[in-house]
């Protein structure tokens, strides 16, 4: 599965044409218009165009075609020529992109909550130096980061991939042409062979990476080079139009190519692993359009050559640059972001794009000579340095804010301990306290502060106690906490891990030793689950078998389990997974009970999911009215087939406890409860709130088991 932008992904930046030289193809501007149009529609109204992200592939093919055509027509003879090529790219692309980065940083500072400053400041730096795609590949595909709001710079991942391609490609083409001349070979044949080899290597790696690590594969330059190479192959082959104008084959090929792009935009979804086999549809569709270049009166070119398409094509680079920051930042400025507000944001996108194209792109292209840029590297270095320092200062400020927030948390903890307010934390869920989400006074702060809440995670997260799909669940860490005669196992996915602070408090009071068996997204059950690749499917299943084997060896007194069912059972959708998951949990709970341990399942907690931004972001935006971040229990409390399995199993040594009344009351669920921020992202409890539930959790476990054996101090 690739990260979705409505869902978390974006279109590559369409490169501006150099000018309108001899052989200029107006249809390519029309093709750019289609590509940027489907991407913008996808980002604004993704449910109407679920595969609009294929604009990525369209632009990559166009870039490969245009750059290779230019290099074949004007082959670099030495490094100075290559340097001039690079400087031309700088002149055409960087002024507008730097302007948008600066405006985005200013917009964040003015409108966005402080909770996002740290991460977005880092992404501003990554966008400035064109390694945003690698930043996202390394950080944003992590499961625990999946609730993070997309930054205004996320769309720069594709420009980063293009710039990396532009850096290497002229060297490769220059070497191939040099070799052809030196060894008296036909340049075209050598070019086709060299580019073909790049295509094969990249396409092969793309298939492998998409199958094994689809999140990172989506952003990787190496998985995308084959798309550029397809455009380059078309450039090396030449177009069929010169040999067969108005030919029926070219006509059919052109419409077939356009249909392939449209099919991808309408039929693909963010759930499909991408890129991979299916990326070939829009890639080769674009290649067909470029190759056939039909001039038949009924060909797509007569649509692509119209003034309207030319207008959007000419402004496609600036449209792409502006639309995403506006889409991310405008919701911070308005209460609702629906059709009317989206149309306004779209209108400003066009206004800013036209102004940027005329006042920035055109002026830099006309009045700044590439040779002058090449001879004045200090100018470029200074510009990059100023922008990087600005973004860096932004980042350092956010770090200082986070440190201050942690100090505030410590002070609040001391105040709460000294005062012992009856309405602090979950105790606010009483009729006496009124609205649990209300801020009691203007002097009362939320603990943990929203800025610090994102780091208020249990130790098991910080100690890397999770098996992960990135290693196919073959890494199986077991973390050990405490020393005592009572052995306790905590097992499940991240929604089990969120209970560690509460259990750790109980362990210290009652002499428990806690061992953790945790896996990101993988519910430990006797049934395979629908992960993105076969290795992860089998790995999660094998992990469950391994855990049960460990329980048989370790002789635990108590096994505590909890899960968020976020992955469907194989052969089912999420909607139809509850029944088979219940049967699978019954099987494994019975196995655990037969080890001699008592088993407690904590019902999955309510959580906002995607109904709001991450809880800290929402609370930061609504500091005076955190109740705006509340929701209805029917929407927030998820299904829990593991609890259903406990009920059906009817084993006195396998019980369940429900803690949702500590998060919800009277049909409402809250993100701030009695002054405590309950979630550190979109679904996981903060360590602060989890720990505050320790006493209640202990009493309920003791009552459910009907025994004080595990609680000698009670």
From TrEMBL:
One of its GO terms (molecular function) is acyltransferase activity, transferring groups other than amino-acyl groups. Residues 26-355 form the Acyltransferase domain. InterPro entries: Acyl_transf_3_dom (IPR002656), Acyltransferase_3 (IPR050879), SGNH (IPR043968). Residues 1-20 are annotated as: Disordered. One of its GO terms (biological process) is lipopolysaccharide biosynthetic process. Keywords: Acyltransferase, Membrane, Transferase, Transmembrane, Transmembrane helix. Residues 1-10 have a biased composition (Polar residues). The chain crosses the membrane at residues 26-45, 51-72, 93-112, 165-183, 190-211, 217-241, 248-268, 274-296, 317-334, 340-360, 372-396. One of its GO terms (cellular component) is membrane. Residues 470-695 form the SGNH domain. Pfam families: Acyl_transf_3, SGNH. This is Acyltransferase. The lineage of its organism: Bacteria, Bacillati, Actinomycetota, Actinomycetes, Micrococcales.
